[in-house]
Amino acid sequence: MDRNTAIELWRTYNSEDSLFRHALEVEAAMRHFARRNGEDEEYWGNVGLLHDIDYQSFPEEHLQHARQMLEKAGLDEAFIHAVESHGWELCSVVEPSCIMEKVLYTVDELTGFITACAYVRPSRSVLDLEVKSVRKKWGTAAFAAGVRRDVIEKGAAMMGLQLDEVISETILALRGVAPEIGLQGNIATQDGCP
């Protein structure tokens, strides 16, 4: 499945802009970590793009309908297993086993936290966001209260990486799609043009 087909599939079941931005964020992170690990960027990216395929239609039954939607589209068992594993111990019993699944499990929550950190900056941008700014907000329970920091920490450990490295790499991934996800803010481009 190519990216355009994956986007069409996503739009078959979803229409909310905020959910699409999240799908793009997770896709970007998955592509970034695929490149870093020498894996199939397109495949990993599509897993990220479609990881919440059933969320808009079934928010209270998240991941209970994803398999059927993905099977109908002809996606393979590895793809479906990966999607199901991102909700491990939250809304799924499918444990992440391969590196792709461990990355998805981690970056799903982390992209949301990084986005929240970027939104409260004066620049409203991920382009000037640093790890230390993210870590400063990490211990404030009221900030982005819905983000499961324990999941991110567990996921980083499963990936075999320090939390700061996972945060840094995810920020880099989101910088690459900042305009598409609304996180370019008021930061000018390299040539001085907005």
Could you please describe the fold and organization of this structure?
This protein is an all-alpha fold and 194 residues long. It has one domain (3-175): Hypothetical protein af1432. The chain contains 9 helices and no strands. It has helices spanning 3-13, 17-36, 41-50, 66-72, 77-85, 99-119, 131-138, 149-159, 163-175. Helix 4 (66-72) runs antiparallel to helix 5 (77-85). The radius of gyration is 16 Å and the shape is globular. The N and C termini lie far apart (34 Å). Mean pLDDT is 94; it is low at 189-194.
Structural class by secondary-structure content: mainly alpha
Number of strands: 0
Average pLDDT reading: 94
Computed over alpha carbons, the radius of gyration is 16 Å
- How many structural domains can be distinguished in the coordinates? 1
Beta fraction of the residues? Answer: under 5%
The poorly predicted ranges are 189-194
CATH class: Mainly Alpha
What order do the SSEs take from the amino end to the carboxyl end, as H and E? HHHHHHHHH
Q: With helices defined by DSSP (H or I, 4 residues minimum), what is the helix count? A: 9
